[in-house]
Design goal:
The chain is an all-alpha fold and 155 residues long. The protein has helices at residues 3-31, 48-58, 67-87, 91-113, 116-120, 123-135, 144-153. The longest helix has 29 residues, at 3-31. Keywords: Membrane, Transmembrane, Transmembrane helix. This is DoxX family protein. It comes from Paracidobacterium acidisoli. The chain crosses the membrane at residues 65-86, 93-115, 121-142.
């Protein structure tokens, strides 16, 4: 790959993984009130209780006793995937799993709320971006994966 194209590719990959990871971490921050209470501009939940209620809305087929566990599982997954994407650690697996998680979310939103909300929130763009990142043969040099690979070559 020509040097100029390689640099463009690395920069695009860097921006994509940072955007995806920051999006996950921002959603987690919202459900813990870090962006402010519900009613604040751009705040979807404002606290975990509201997020659990939203989880119940998107999972009407789930027993009520399971909903808090689903909310915590989603929160844990989004936190871990967000950190992995931002740092570039286990990037292929993190990107693939983030695409799967977001696809499940988007399909659930579509089934319960209709197609308008997932399209407005770019849910399927997250899926596509995640899987594009997972499919890339090489990543930018600014990942922990790249640092680890360099250290292994020099050992």
């Amino acid at each position: 790959m020509p040097r100029g194209h390689r640099m463009q590719f690395e920069f695009a990959s860097l921006l994509l993984r940072l955007s995806l990871g920051a999006g996950f971490l921002s959603a987690v921050a919202d459900r813990f009130g870090i962006w402010g209470p519900l009613g604040t501009s751009s705040v979807a939940w404002g606290n975990f209780h509201n997020f659990v209620a939203y989880t119940a809305t998107l999972n009407p087929w789930s027993p009520a006793a399971m909903v808090p566990a689903l909310a915590w599982i989603a929160t844990f997954a989004e936190t871990v995937l967000g950190v992995l994407l931002v740092t570039g650690l286990m990037l292929r697996a993190a990107a693939l799993l983030s695409g799967l998680l977001t696809l499940a979310f988007g399909l659930s939103m579509t089934a319960v709320l209709g197609i308008h909300d997932p399209l407005n929130y770019g849910v399927f763009v997250y899926v596509a971006g995640s899987w594009l990142l997972a499919a890339c043969a090489a990543y930018d040099r600014w990942t922990l994966d790249a640092v680890i690979a360099r250290r292994k070559r020099h050992v």
